[in-house]
Design goal:
The N terminus is likely disordered. By secondary structure, the protein is mainly β. The protein has one helix and 20 strands.
Amino acid sequence: MRNHIRVYKAALLYFLIFFLSLMMGDSLLAQKPTMYYGDLDIPNRPYAKDPYVIFFQGKYWMYYSVPSEQNKEWYIGIATSQDLINWEKKGNIKGQKGTVEEKGICAPGALVKEGVLHLFYQTYGNGKLDAICHAFSTNGIDFERDATNPIFRPQISDWSCGRAIDAEVVVYKNQYFLYYATRDPDYKIQQQGVATAPISANFDRNSWTEVPNMPMLKPELDWEKKCIEAASCIQKGKYLYMFYAGAYNNEPQQIGIARSEDGIHWQRLSEEPFLKNGGPGSWNESESGHPNVFKAQDGRYYLFFQGNNDKGKTWYLSKVEIGWNRKGPYLKK
């Protein structure tokens, strides 16, 4: 008799959960996405930001930002996957003492050139002096620093304080484009700039030429508030498409989309965010931010991003699949 009661209670609980999930706009079953990654270097506080995914040596690698327990230092976490859903942590890349990296490093970007993985990342904690650094690896875990680090920061000017963060380096029209975010001289507005390098470049400091007449993209729409950052680019046909983060973290930060025919001049494809923050009670209620667009080995396209629902006490990484039509990218259902 007791076993029958237990079975009855279990069945009742299951149908109650199922009924509630159907009644809610964001179902209980959909609150946690299929990919839901948080670094557990800090026990009981999952925390991972700024994802960048790349295919290297037969598997997927994800580089991302993770802090020390008191947020006094940032470093880059490394995880690998075979399916872009389940990730296994492989290690960390920490800032080198006695260098510009001493206070921390974060916001990685990556590319593979001639079998070598190149990592581009920013220094942390130096305010207006933060800049882009470069390192390279033949195994994805052990990195050798560029002797000329930092490899790039913009000149101090009427539009930039000289800071550079959130590097993205891509090949387009037979040259390299280095996209970066910087602050205005008053250190209030975050906006986008770009530098270029020849296809033969080795990515050191002498490789890069700052493109004049910036900013390339600055906040103009209401939801972008005072910040555009974290450019992530991919070529589709003749266009280069840029996914970018609008607004500072948790304002909420959301993701926009623009495209270009020359890598320098950009046109927004919508005045609304391409990927919005989640609704009340969702895992990404506080934001959907810091995008990374990626084409998988099977030809499918994904947009990786960061989110949380507690104003940044924790952070998770996830992804959505995107498709393409004549108008550009769209979110797949």
